[in-house]
Queue: 2 jobs
Job 1
Amino acid sequence: MKMAAVLLAAIVVAALLLPPLLPWGYAAIDWDAVRTPAFSPGHVLGTDSVGRDLLARTLAGTRVTLAVATAAALVALVIGTAWGATAGWFGGRIDEFMMRIVDALYALPFMFVVIVLMVVFGRSVLLVFLGIGAVEWLTMARVVRGQVLALRNRPFILASEAAGAPARAILTGHILPNIASVAVAYLMLTVPQVVMVESFLSFLGLGVQEPLTSLGILVHDGADDMDIAPLTLIVPGFVLVATVVCLNRLGEGQRSRMAR
Amino acid sequence: MPCDKLRANGLADGRVIAILLRRLATALPTLFAVILLSFLLMRAAPGSPFDSERPLDAATRAAMDKAYGLDRPLIVQLGRYLGHVLQGDFGPSLVYKDFTVSGLVAQGLPVSLTLGGLALVFAAVLGIAGGIIGALRPGGWLDRWIAIKSAVAVALPSFVTGPLLVLIFGLWLSWLPVSGLDSAASWILPVIALGTPAAGAVARLTRAGLAEAMAQDHVRTARARGFSPLTVLLRHALPPALIPVVSYLGPAAAGLLTGAVVIETVFGLPGLGRYFVQGALNRDYPLVLGVVILYAGLILFFNLIADLLYGLLDPRVRG
């Protein structure tokens, strides 16, 4: 848990603060150093097949991947919370209908729907995270609905209803603050999932597009060059897996603290 | 399983059929919604599949549209498409000339199903074994080691493990073939790369299920009656512990099918996923549509199977 937090913090801080300090930008080409091995002067981790600094590229890719993941997870948080809270609050037929929709959507092959979206509307970063966020909200909706249902009949909620508070005020004033901590735990578990989806799409060439880069694109490029420059595969692959493992670990820790 | 036991489990009576019907009642509309949604999206897409480097002149364009029925009203197109799909005809592929989508699917599906099936078996065997071994000594070093390994395995995307395995076992050690399907050994690396995350998930679910089951009354009774710890674990604790594993079958099938898309690309296997990616990159609408419908059908089918197995393992569900 502590190790996960430290490692994740190191990755995030490096991705945010380190790039301006490096001698090479992530898209800059060093014609004198194509495919140099690690620890060459100026290129700590070496370069790729067209002479771009691997460390700079990995950091830039991490930054894009994390930004997309955070944005998409927030989209999922907003949709999921709104949907789940409405269903849980009104209950009855409305609840049943809304959760039926969630059940039906759960059974959809989401990755394929996102890919269809990419095919149809072209490939843009905005669409990547909107698409992913729109499909990752389902778990959030279920969790929030459960929480709201449990809160619905608690005395303090009944009291404010009896006192004549409007539903909107009760939802924002009493319900939301009480479900916030659980929602945050699931938000932390959504982020690594989005990281996976984004990398997957980018790996296939359907996600983030050049000249922007992301961990998925780097792994893909690395796989093409691995026989000559294995580090181009290993470094971004390691950062990706480490990020996901750490985020999962932290999210699960948060969730089990909630359960207690 | 003998027939009388099936009956005792309620599988042979009407209730299972009722579950089946209820599930079908949501699965079929979902499948229809997938078809409708993808169809409309494809038609709403800017650009036409006939756009290429050189623009077509108006007459040719009109003739092409007519030949593919693209000049008819949308609802007519949809109706015709649905009618053809029901007959197993997904239309011609626009990129693989001279091939129908059904022909490509018929070629690719066996490869994808074999890949997914082997990966599922790999994940189930390794995961359940890992979960059991961990539960033998709760909190022991082996238990903790397996817990760490499975947490990492869950986060190992197949597009990272695939190339890494190729690098290590194919290029550096030259032990295993890395591309194509020339021998049975060709399956080893793809199956490992695809099955690893699922194996990790199964191991965690089994381990958690066993921990919960060991605390239950019937297991305590079995232990009190003096059965050996291994017998208690395997015969009394394992069946209820496997329930979450079985309900993971639906998501696992979805995950394996999606992962297979990447694995087939990485290892050059002639499966559905490769056609799907090629279709998606080339805007081959009929191909993408056909494969999406097929994938949706497969995933819904596995969810259905998971629901039925769930009822078989846990008598309380049938209530």
Job 2
Amino acid sequence: MKKEWKHPFWETAAKDRLTVRLNITHDDGSFSTSVARVSKYDENGKLTKDYEEILEQNEIKAIDKFTEDRLERHRQERESKIQKEKERHEAKRLEELFNLKLQTFEIPEIKDSTNRKLKAKIRKAKNLVEMNAYATILLMENMSEQPGESN
Amino acid sequence: MNNRENPTKGFVTVATKREQFLIGADNLCQSILDHYEDAKVTLFTEQRFIDDPNCQHFFRDFDQVIATPRGTNREKMWGMANSPYDLTFYVDADIEIVHSDIKKVFNHLDGYDMVYVNLTKEGAKHFAEWNWGPNLYDDGYKGVPDHLTHCGGVALYDTRNPLIKEFMNDWYELFIKQRDGTWDPIEFQSIQKGNFRQWDQLTLWWLIYHSPKYKSLKWNFFEDNYRWNYFTSFGFNIDGTHNCHKVDPNRDYWKTNPDPVVIHYSSWMDKFGDKGFL
């Protein structure tokens, strides 16, 4: 039986436990692979056999580097995921804002208004507050033009 | 009249089936006029909408409103074929214009008969279906690519070449036959995955790359490609920037000109289940 300990990294800052891929080629030629967790010390405080085997096949420096690289990769993946989620959220917000603008343009007083300048401002509004503000100005303008309806 | 030197220019959009699409088309027209106040915009829609008193307000700012012969969700190609302008920029009704560069759109023809937005490999994940084989344009493949390359969401074309009107008409007629299953050319036989035959983009691919009749047509892609059809699914960044650099890394227009002219609110229409492409 041949055991290969691949890609070990420290699980803890104290460097007393490793996670490692264990590939075994059995005597009958079959192959198996698994992820193993290996403690540095046994219950009597002595180095474990598996740990010693890992160090025979992997330098401590390489384990440290792989651990650091892995942490950095995970940090970048987390950041990228957060960024993507923010962007997805922003795209959804703008889709919803677009839909709300179309609804706003269906309000009869806005629909019938010929005030292109204010309607353009509604269309270009960056958020709901800005859109509502311009829609309100347009509605107020419309009301002030209707005698007897301003009060 | 000699239209060679002073061609008429205008925009065309099509809204059929649902009043919701008229709302979109009206908004598109208004957004063009926001940035290009002399623009001519023609709407193609169903006669029943043209006759409906409740729909009249949608038509106020269009240059012309023309009835389509049928009420399918692909009357767009008929509208494209029957543009009243020499130079036409066709735009889907779920699009909004957000940049004053729209005034310069017709300059992009620059001697070509048609100009399209190129559907890139990096943008492919945003499309329902894109490729059916390994030969990709973005990988440098020089033959007929195994994927949809030309986006029909917007199209810039010059009908002073009479073949263009025939091209658009064939696109319309062949797509209807393709969807009905009565037209399945030999070049489609290699497409064994997906539901490509449901897309008018596949008809466009065939006409561009395989139709002997249209070999002489000169077509091009917009140099500042996705500025002319920026799908909302490409993303809007918190700082107000866009992601042309991510979906179009092989071009470099986004280094100097990153802001889209055309925003395509693809999921807005998709929720009704009638979306053509995305």
